[in-house]
Amino acid sequence: MKFDENKYEHQGGGVFETTPPDGSRSWFTKGVNFLAITASITSALLVVLTLGVTAFSVFRRYVLGNPLTWTDELSGFLVVAIVMLGAAEVLRRGEHVSVDILSERATGRKRKLLDFWSNLSVAIVSGVLFASGWNAVMFSRRIGVYSDGYLEAPLWIPQAFLLVGAGLLCLLATARCLDLVLLRRPEK
Amino acid sequence: MTTLLILAILIALLLTGMPIFAGLGLTAIVITVASEGSISSIADTVFAKLDNALLTAIPMFAFMAHVMIRSKVVDDLYDAANALVGHFKGGLGVATVLACTVFAAISGSSVATALTIGSSAIPQMQRFGYRPSDTYGVIAAGGTLGILIPPSGPLILYAVVSETSIGALFIAGLIPGIMMAMLFASYSIAQGYFRSELRQTVWIGLAGCGHAMRKSIWSLLMPPVVLGGIYMGIFTASEAAGIGCIYALFVGSVIYRNFGIKDLAQTAYDTVCTTAMLFMILGGAAMFGHAVTIIRLPIELMETVTALGLGPMQFILVVMFVIFILGMFLETIAIILITTPIVLPALMQFDVNLIWYGILLMINLELALITPPVGMNLFVIKGIANAPLAEVIRGVLPYVVLMLIGLALVLLFEPLALWLPQLAGFGV
Q1: Is A182 touching B (CB cutoff 8 A)?
Q2: N or C terminus of chain A: which is more exposed, having fewer CB within 10 Å?
Q3: CA B274 to CA B178: how far, in whole Å?
Q4: Cα A106 to Cα A114: distance, rounded to the nearest angstrom
C-alpha cells in the first residue's frame, strides 16, 4: 500500500514537498500538472469554506437558536467539488491507494508496462466518467433541473465539478501514458 | 459463482497495481456496458454517492487530526500515559496501548496513530528491555484502534453505504474498542510478569504525574469535546467534527502558538489529498455497487445462501472469513465499499442488526491492518523503525490472536456493541 510515512514529519513543509522530480516529463504533462495543482488549491480553499459553513451553522443553531436550512445541501455540493478538484493532484503525487505487492517488485520494462496499464485504467475510467458527466450536465441544463433542497440550485453547477475533475484526471493519466511511450527515461 | 468470478477479476485487476478506484470503476464499466449498453447512469451514480452532507464529517475530522499533529499538541500523550502506568510491571506496553487509545479518539486514523505513538514509544520500550518485535507488535496493534474507536473514517463510510446512524455506530464502537485495548494491555501486563528482562520506569510521584497530565490536557480534552455532543445526541457527526476543528485551531494557534496561516494552508491541502484519495474509492465503489445491483448479484448471493441452508450466524461467519482473507490483500476502505453493498440485502433478509455487523466488520478490518502480506500498519512500523518486515510480522502475531478473541466475543455477545447505543436512545 502506498502512503507517505514522512508526511507528519514534514512540519511546515510546502505544498509541493512530495512532488516527484519531473525533468523527464513533456510540456503537455507539465501543463496538466500545473492545472492539477491549481485545482487542488481551489479545493483546499473549499475545505476552509466547508469548515466555515459548518462552524457558522453550529453557531446559528446552538448559540442563536436560529438554524440555517441550506447548509447540509451546500456541504454535499462542496464534498463533490473538494473530491473532484483534488483527484488529479492525488494522482500527480502518486497517492491514490493501490495494491502494490506485485508492481513494486517489477523493474525495467515490466515496471513501465504496469505503470502504463495503471495510468491507462485511470484514463479510461475518468474518460467514461467525463462522458457520462457531460450527458448529465447537458440534461440538467436542457431540462432545467434544480436541487430539491432549500437552495434550489441549478443541478448542473455541482455536477460540473464531476466534469472538471474527471476531465483533469483523464488528461493527466493520458499525458502520463504518452510520456511512458514517447519519452526516454532512466529505467527504475 | 458470478460473485466469486467478479471478485476474482477485480482482485486480479487490483494486483496489477492500478489505483483501487480505477479497478472498481473499470470492472463496473464493463458490467454496466455489457448489461445496460450505456454509460449514462455512471455519473449520476457517482454524484449521488458523493453529494452527501454526512460525508463532510470525514474531511473535517481529517482536518482536525492534521491540525493536532502539525501543531504538536498530541506529542505529550505518550509521556503522560507513561507517567501514569509506566512504573507497573509491563507498564510501558500498557502506556503505549493507552496512548494509542486516546490518540485514536483524536485522529480517527490507524496509520496516524501507529505513526505518531510509534515514534515515541519504540525507542523508549527498547531502552527498557523490550525485544524489537514486542514493540512493533503493540504499536501496530494499538494503532488499529483508530478505526474502531470513534471518530472513525471507516465507520462513517460504512454508515453512509449501509444507511445506518453515524452516531449509533460511534457509540457502538466504544465498548469493543476499550475491550480490545484492555486485551492488548492485559497481554502487556502478562509479559511484564513472565519476562524478567522487561524493566519499568521509576514512579515520578503524584506531582510528576500531575505535571505530565497538565502538559497533555488539551489533547485529553479533545475526545470529550468532540464526542460528548454526539453521545448526548446534541450534535450530528459533521457538527461535532466542525467543533473539533475549531477546538484544534484554537489550541494550535492560541495555546501552543505554533500553528499559523502557512500551516492552515498546508493542512487544508493535506485534507484535500486525504479526502480525494478516500472518496475516489467511494466513487469507484458506487459504480461497482450499481453494476452488481444491475446484474442482481446481491440477490444471487441471497439465493445461494438460502440454497445452502445457511442461518444468520453461519452466514456472518462465512462473510467474516471472506473479509479476513480479503483483508490480507486489500485496503480497509476498499473492503467496506466492495463487500457491504453485496452482503447488505442478505443481512437485512436475516434481520441482522447492521450496527452490530458494522462493529464486527471494523474489528475484522483492524485485523486487515496487521495481517501480511498487505497490512498498512506493518508498513508504517517498518517505515518508522527501519525494521525487517518479518520481525514486525512476528511481533503482531499474538495480537492477531487477541483480535480474533475480541471478534469472537462481540460475535457471541451482541450487547457488547449494542448496549450503549440502546442506552443512548438510538433505537437500534
Answers
A1: no
A2: C
A3: 27
A4: 8
**Contact between chains at B281 and A95 (C-beta distance less than 8 A):** no
* Other residues' Cβ atoms within 10 Å of the Cβ of residue A108: 9
Say how far apart CA B278 and CA B281 lie, in whole Å: 5
Task: Please tell me the pTM assigned to this model.
Answer: 0.85
Backbone angles phi, psi at B203, to 5 degrees: -65, 125
Residue B232: how many CB atoms within 10 A of its CB? 10
Mean pLDDT of chain B: 89
Q: Do A58 and B239 touch (CB under 8 A)?
A: yes
Contact B220, B149 (CB under 8 A): no
With cut-offs at 50, 70 and 90, classify the pLDDT of residue A185. low
- Identify all chain B residues contacting A13, using CB atoms and an 8 Å cutoff: 266
- SS3 category, A99: coil
R_g (Cα) of chain A, nearest Å? 20
Task: Give per-residue pLDDT as tens, B48-64.
Answer: 999 988 899 889 988 99
Q: Do B20 and A75 touch (CB under 8 A)?
A: no
> Strand, coil or helix: what is A20?
coil
On the CB side of B276, how many CA atoms lie within 13 Å of its CA? Answer: 35
Identify whether the C-beta of residue A54 lies closer than 8 Å to the C-beta of residue A71. Answer: yes
CA distances from B40 to A121, A127, A131, A136 (A): 19, 13, 8, 8
Cα–Cα separations (whole angstroms), residue B228 to B231, B239, B359: 5, 12, 20
Residue whose C-alpha cell is 446534541: B234
Q: Compute the count of residue pairs across chains A and B with CB atoms less than 8 Å apart.
A: 228
Contact A8 B69 (CB under 8 A): yes
Q: What is the pLDDT of residues B180-221, one digit of tens each?
A: 999 999 999 999 998 888 888 888 888 888 988 888 898 888
